[in-house]
Fold these 3 entries.
Entry 1:
Amino acid sequence: MNIFNWIAASIVIVTLIYVSFVLTLADWFKALRRGEAVTLLPERGGRKWPLWTQVVIIIIGMGLCIPLFYFGWIPLFHVPSNITFTLGLIGLLLYLFGLIFMLWARRTLGKYWGLSTSTNVKLLDDHQLIQSGPFAFIRHPMYFGAWVLFLGLTLLYPVWAIFILFLSALIAFSGRARREEAALAERFGNSWVEYRKRTKLIIPFIY
């Protein structure tokens, strides 16, 4: 492994640990304890699932990634040795851009950030419609940042495991964005309609 690969791998590992465990899971658990976050399982007749069940689901999900990476670390295509560095550099730059954009959006949201799931979206009682920072031109900048991040990872590590995660992110975040749109439209009414008219859904100037 050359020096570039060592540097790239170190950056990716450290930042993914920070985003996944420190910035996302830690904040989500705190909000879950306060009753301000969605659970990973649908509520049963208004009763919430205990915290330990959420931990078990996360552990199972992480466990499923082990065989995915073990069996899926197969090249998507042959990369000529003369462009390996160039492709990897472009991938790393895209990864960092997506990460920074996502963190910018997360910081702009502040306490109004929340983790939505495939079935549920939860807004705070005093939730506000954020229209500053990256939200001034796209309504779901964290998802855009995540898409770019995964695209960069796919170029940096062009293997099936990463590509599958990239496709999963495209599908999952697109669906979540639609569900969040419905919740925000219901809460903010005309303010949401006006905001929606002058912004794009996820991709700046395009979509």
Entry 2:
Amino acid sequence: MMRSVAILALFTFVMTGSFFTANGQQMQTLINGGVVHGGFGGPVVKFDNVADDFGVWVGGRGAWMMTLQDGHAISIGGGGYGLVTEHRVPDPDFGEPDEDLFGLVGYGGFIVEYTNRSYKLVHVTANTLIGAGGISVRDKDFDDISSSSDPFFVIEPGISLELNVTHFFRISAGMGYRYTSGIELAGFRDKDFTGPNANINLKFGWFR
């Protein structure tokens, strides 16, 4: 029995090898050739319209970077951002009378980025964030933060121009579009946070 199995295995191996040799075919994969690994992290600032007023978001992101032989790169990581400008709650009946209340908002998630020919001095990157966030209400001095909060879903694609400043530092500026779903608190709605934004990203790390 064991002898028969061994003969069958040898026959299968020889026939499979002969087939690939005759056809000259190789397995196709998504990523071919050598891959060089690196990584980066750094601060991000975003500018947009929040509830019909100028909004600024500050945060950061980091990623593991895989650079292919042709200079194209794929980065996988995450990031998070918080609203630093003050935006009064639209609902005048929320909270105590004559109390100044503002939205407290943050979000973050998983980020995938593609970099086109990263070896060039100036090149293009495209990325997408998929994640979640939360919104609550605070007073002017952050002394009182509402216990009620509203979670929401967010997806944010974007495209940027990136400059290689040094071998370990890059800076990019670009545009994105944030889409939120699930915001309904103190008069705030999804439309107050959904829309285009401009951003500046500093990257410090190991680029190959």
Entry 3:
Amino acid sequence: MKSLAFIKRVQVFALVCAAIFVGATSIDALAQGVRFPAVSPGASLKQTVGVTDISVVYSRPGVKGRDIWGKVVAYNELWRAGANLSTMLEVSDDVKIEGQKVPAGKYSIFLIPAQQGDWTLVVNKAVNLGGTNGYKQEDDVFRAKVKPVVQATSTEWLEYTINDFTDSSATLALTWEKLRIPMKIEIATSELSFSKARNAVAAGQAANIGFANYALQTNSNLEEAMKMVDASIAVQESYRNHVLKARLLEKMGKKADAVKFLEKAITLGKAAKTAPFDLADNEKMLATWKSSK
């Protein structure tokens, strides 16, 4: 029969082993929750162009003293245009990229570098691919030629930017090492804006004023804008909708009617508890209109 001392030693040993196991498990669990620097850190980019959101989700490899083109990134082979997962592009509306139609949605971007001359841009329907693994050419939305531009200075970490944008266009560019690869994006912003406003009105939303403002900015759809302003006035007269009607009438060459509605707008503005921020400007405009009648 084992002695009591021996049994106690066994029990102590078991407790120590259990403590070591629990401690190791806790340390392992803690380590799993710790983040360490990624070789190619993730990044995202978002820019609104007109009324369309454009975003890119990608990973950023570094040059790190390496020969990039032709070595790290092979010529004449499909490249994920970043690192880790395939680079993802998302557009909230239909756009054109390098002249090619791209419906609203998410896509993968790939490039095929060339040692000389143009590169090939590939936009593909599949997303979150393991780099080029799982890529299928039949899922391509289009392929187009893009021209790399040599930069005077080197960019250490691969970067996407959206620049040179207007209400209806922008340049999406990948820059890495001493090369920049620009990709032209075009958007039918005017048509999109008016279409969205019409849909909002049809759904019972008050998009009348926004439609009229944009019609004035673009000098288009003025008759339709007038109908929307009239509908707004029928619901409730306000300083703002009378100013808009006056400006629309003036734009359409109906100066006498424009003066009447701007006079009414100014009367409404002066009666408001808080004077409209542009009241003085509209008083000056009214004086100008009257002097040029």
